[in-house]
Amino acid sequence: MLWDSREKLGCAIAKCGKTHVVCHYPKIEKEEGKPIYKVGDGACNDCKDYSDAPTCKDNLCSAKA
Q1: Which range of residues forms the domain containing residue 48?
Q2: 3 domain residue, yes or no
Q3: Residue 15 domain-assigned?
Q4: What DSSP letter does each residue of 4-52 carry, written as one string?
């Protein structure tokens, strides 16, 4: 569904009898042979690869947009 290079993603959850999840994201062409994500050394160890000034909170990388 998503590659690690995706910069924009929006998801919503609605409960109406059943639980429905919908996500919207810009289309990106799949590159043959390229992995969909980068394997890291553990939570937050690779945050620096995604931003100039990353932070790690709750084992997730975050950066200012």
Answers
A1: 10-28+36-62
A2: no
A3: yes
A4: TT----EEEEEEESEEEEEEE----PPPTT--SS---SSTTTTGGGT-S
Distance CA 20, CA 4 (A): 24
pTM to 2 decimals? 0.42
Strands 55-57 and 60-62: antiparallel
pLDDT tens digits, 34-63: 777 666 666 677 676 666 667 777 777 776
Spatial separation of the C-alpha atoms in residues 34 and 40, rounded to whole Å: 16
Domain count along the chain:
1
Structural domain contains residue 5? no
